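User: structure tokens for this one?
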Amino acid sequence: MASSARGTGRGIRRGIGRALGQGIGRAFGRVVASAAASTMEPVALDVAVDDLPGPRSPGRLLRLLAAHPTGVDAAIVLPCAALALIAAVLHPERQAPGLVFAAVLLVPLIWRRSRPLAVFALLAAIAFVQWLLDVTSPGDAALLIALYSVAAARPRRWTLLAAGVTELGVVLAAVRWGGPPVREMFSAFVFLTGMMIAACATGVNIGGRRARLAYLEDRAARLERERDQQNRLGAAAERARIAREMHDVVAHNLSVMIALADGVAFTLDTDPAEAGRAVQAVSDTGREALGEMRRLLGILRDDAQQDTRAPQPGLGDLDRLVEQVRATGLPVTMEISGEPLVLSGGAALSVYRLVQEALTNTLKHGGPAATAQVRLRYGAGALEVEILDGPGGSGVPGGSGVPGGSGGQGLVGMRERVAAFGGIVVAGPRPTGGWRVHARLPADPEPVASADGAVPGNPAQHGPAQHGPAQHGPAQHGPAQHSPAQHSPALGGAMLGGPVPRPVAAQRVAS
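Assistant:
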């Protein structure tokens, strides 16, 4: 009976060995290839976080097992312990050694998740002692479990080392316990090798899936952080842009209003009519400033409401700006030369704000005899803008760091605006007195001229010499030809029977 059972067991081992010998190589190759593909780093991940590819969602059973690791370990250890008890009952002569080695091999599996390499090394040493003492035990399955843990949690080199140690143990076990016939020894070797390969390949596959999932989660987190950073940078840039707009609008219009209001104080008793016109000019400037502020506040609305915003000022509004400053009593001339070039709306707005800020600084900080010149020169693919004040002017831009400056943000805003379109700004005192602001903005090299020959930025006709560096005629911009009907002392200090200095208060307004 015993010999029949022994023969049946050998037949089963031979059949299993042949089956594993024929198919285990191909199966292992497919599993390892799948594991390698799953651990391969994606080539391109520059996609949205929501579009990142990921592994298929695990089934309910796998989710349950992942949520209860202690239960999984118990389900693995308990069958091995039960087999050890059965073997001890069937072989009483080996009961004590078998149970001892089974316990010593199975207990360290408690730490297989946190210390896989240490657990594997300990179990390999215990198994070698077991081999030396010629004691068999079902607890040897713990070595395969430890090999799986190493393959799932550690780099490839440690997996190969652990697999080599396990295979050495397979050879030793097959030689000692495989039986005297070489065929049975080979069958035992193939069977145990197949078990080792299955444990190793399963661990590599599971570890690869975990690594890929962790990589994708980290990538998604980094993309989300980068997106948040971009949003914050965009919000900061938008706040800086709105701050520049508000500075330019408020500083310019308030400076004009203060100069006009101070002019009213000089003529309220002597020329009530002129004082009334000055008050009306203050009212008009205030309404314009209010409209500009409403436009700026419209920037903060949603996209659907932003479509209704009024167009922003550009080169075509420079004449109106110059006339507005002239109304305060500051003599201003404007020159335009060269073939006009195409400027984008943002670049044209930057030029307008640049001129506005420079004239505002001259209005605030210039002396009683200050004058201003605005020059626009269209060159080869670029527009040069130059604003000069003096002699007698001290138009120190805000934030320039020059003693006597207001410490505002005017010069910083100029540079930021022009730099956004690839241009540069140079500002500083002139050797002969006064202040100079020079900017250069690249533009479309194709010249653009209107049908009537007008130059962009100057709706008034300049005559045949419009493309040369000619000074505007007396009827347009001459600083010395302001008649009493145009600019009276009530409007800030133009000459009416003698020069009237502009109020000191208008020179001290902070930028």
